[in-house]
């Protein structure tokens, strides 16, 4: 395992939305790699049950990313967090049309996907900067402009939220450049979860790459939108 400044200590990772789907699989993957994990979820009982299922070295913590004071309270009890996986997200406007989508739905989407991640980053990244080491993996999406393409119009609020999230990653990476903190967006691809029940690929298939992004070696990329190179002959 990568140890900061030669200090032989396990890293601690905190994952949002880790009670199900991709977040749960990433928590399991990081735990399997020997990290201590803080499993967070809106529902405290689900967070604890998931942590208990992972076993020793995992603990559960309630965290709703839309709660303005939630991330700071979580940071106060979580202790040192070296690795942050911002995974919590919602897709509320599948099948909507940008010309008629309810902007209330868009606002709710932005509050979780963009501002939720921002709140969590504000609560945890400054301490990483002070310690001179940290990794942040932000779960983005292929619906985004990928810093310059075309947005997917079939989920307008979601696509906007994830594109803005990529922009947030760019800001955080610029602000932390040279501090030992690496911040990247990761595109998980399409994965069978509650959000995307019709997909073939399982969360455990997507988790190793997200875990790689969350544990990049020193000198690794920052400010990137990283996609696993699969299906290459
Ligand atoms: N599945 C895909 O194909 C796919 C593709 C691209 C990107 N993604 C992204 O991957 C991430 C995980 O999604 P998933 O596919 O695993 O979907 P999922 O099974 O619906 O899981 C979403 C997770 O986010 C949590 N969450 C929602 N609102 C929250 C809040 N306010 N505070 C804290 N947690 C909250 C959910 O908690 P509850 O259980 O309490 O609702 C759940 O744990 C999302 O950011 C999603 O946009 C998924």
TrEMBL record:
The protein's name in its UniProt record: SDR family NAD(P)-dependent oxidoreductase
Organism of provenance: Actinomadura yumaensis
Presence of the UniProt keyword Membrane in the record: no
UniProtKB keywords: Oxidoreductase
Lineage: Bacteria, Bacillati, Actinomycetota, Actinomycetes, Streptosporangiales
InterPro entries listed in its UniProt record: NAD(P)-bd_dom_sf (IPR036291), Sc_DH/Rdtase_CS (IPR020904), SDR_fam (IPR002347)
UniProt similarity note: Belongs to the short-chain dehydrogenases/reductases (SDR) family.
């Amino acid at each position: 395992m990568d140890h900061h400044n030669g200090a032989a200590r396990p890293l601690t990772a905190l994952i949002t939305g880790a009670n199900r789907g991709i977040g749960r699989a990433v928590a399991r993957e990081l735990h399997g790699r020997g990290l201590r994990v803080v499993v967070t979820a809106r529902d405290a009982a689900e967070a604890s049950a998931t942590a208990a299922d992972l076993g020793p070295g995992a603990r559960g913590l309630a965290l709703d990313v839309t709660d303005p004071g939630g991330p700071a309270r979580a940071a106060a009890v979580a202790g040192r967090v070296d690795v942050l996986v911002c995974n919590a997200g919602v897709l509320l406007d599948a099948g909507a049309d940008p010309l008629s989508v309810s902007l209330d739905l868009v606002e709710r989407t932005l509050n979780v996907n963009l501002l939720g991640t921002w709140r969590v980053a504000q609560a945890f990244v400054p301490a990483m900067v002070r310690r001179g080491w940290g990794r942040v993996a932000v779960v983005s999406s292929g619906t985004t402009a990928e810093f310059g393409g075309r947005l997917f119009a079939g989920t307008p609020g979601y696509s906007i939220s994830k594109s803005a999230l990529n922009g947030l990653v760019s800001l955080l990476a610029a602000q932390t450049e040279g501090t030992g903190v690496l911040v990247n967006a990761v595109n998980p691809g399409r994965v069978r979860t509650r959000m995307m029940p019709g997909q073939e690929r399982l969360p455990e298939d997507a988790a190793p790459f997200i875990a790689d992004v969350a544990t990049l070696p020193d000198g690794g990329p920052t400010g990137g939108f990283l996609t696993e190179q699969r299906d290459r002959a």
